[in-house]
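I would like you to sit down with the record closing this message with an eye to the fold:
=====
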Amino acid sequence: MRRVSSPSSRAAHLRGALVGGCSALITALAHTIGGGGLPSGAAVPTLLLVCATVGGVASRPPRTGRTADVTCLVAALCGAQLLGHLALAVGGHHGATSASASMVAAHVGAALVLGGLISASEYLYVLASSVTSWLRLVTVDRSRAVVRRSWWPVDVVVPRTNSFRSGLGMRAPPAWSPLGA
């Protein structure tokens, strides 16, 4: 059975994809900015797998439209970057203790900025989907309907009147009654 998707469910999938993709990109970028260098070798697929998993988990909760949404997104982004950092450390990218203050600041700053941007883009996606749905209803073809006139003659039926036969109609009282009334 095919499930019908709504703008909200499609936006949740978009949220998960953005969390996963941006986490992988920002984790690698923050490590480069923080002095860790670009990831290479087996660390890259491990980073992508970890961030894709966190993105899939982030697409599950429904949107409530509150500050908690942005908080959850920032937490998911921070978690993905932390797990990505661990994946890079285990993959031999750099030592586990080499997290500098600038690297941590880059991770947290990226999570805050991306959390706000992803939340705003999800809201705008749902809004744009709703507007386009309504526009489709309004901009439907409004040309005049073609009226086809029938060329067949129409019989006019005139009911017969029973005015000459009093008392024989269906609702008239009897003309003569044996009771004398």
Notes: The chain has a mean pLDDT of 77.
